[in-house]
Amino acid sequence: MSESWINISAADGGTFAAFLAKPQAGIGPGIVLIQEIFGVNKVMRDIAIDLSRLGYVVACPDLFWRQEPRVDITDQTDAEWKKAFDLFKGFDQDKGVQDLDATLATLRAMDDCTGKVGAVGYCLGGKLAYSMATRTSIDCSVGYYGVGIEAALDEADQIKKPLMLHIAEKDKFVPPDAQEKIKAKLSGYPMVTLHSYPGMDHAFARVGGAHYDVENAALANTRTTDFFANHLK
User: Fold this and answer.
1) How many other CB atoms are there within 10 angstroms of residue 100's CB atom?
2) Angle at 30 between CA 24 and CA 31, to 5 degrees
3) Domain boundary assignment for the chain
4) Distance, C-alpha 130 to centroid of its chain
5) pLDDT digit string, tens, across residues 178-196
């Protein structure tokens, strides 16, 4: 297993960094790991390393690079939360999807990658994982408690590859009416799998977070790794 940072060319000019974790075997399917609003921090890098130990070539791109390169903050202080929300408000999600598509292309072009590539994202990244399923050629996608999916349901007919969404039923950022819209629209799509977690709040799978729940995080993560094994290996 190896870890490094690589540079990726953006479609509209410039370059941005991505944290890259490779499996011990040296070759495997790819995964685009999509950050929360805290940047490519230790939580994201640890997820990348864990996925690489399962045999994947994992790239986690720095999506806030147009505002501030290499953001690396936590959810532990009010000041960091304020900065995270400021970055989120200033983030262009359309350009973010373009950067993710560039990351996808970079992974597919690597000799270490088998060519099949999935995506997984959390919070902001959960919404972007949905957007990857509707706007890119990703082979499969997983979104954890994605914020704002209900506003992009008009893109659902573009889903052509498997998509799994983990929904936290007590998510303060995705209210019940938004969850119902998502379930009502997507439950009839054969490529979409929805998992709903009663009693769980936003970021229940974030290790060390205020709402982390060991049991439900393990369940969601097992469903995700099984999903990737089924569609990428």
Assistant:
1) 26
2) 105
3) 2-232
4) 9
5) 999 999 999 999 999 999 9
Homologous superfamily, domain 2-232:
Alpha/Beta hydrolase fold, catalytic domain (3.40.50.1820)
Confidence of residue 1 (pLDDT cuts 50, 70, 90): low
Overall pTM surpassing 0.90 (yes/no)? yes
Active centre residues (catalytic) = 171, 202
pLDDT tens digits along 127-164: 999 999 999 999 999 999 999 999 999 999 999 999 99
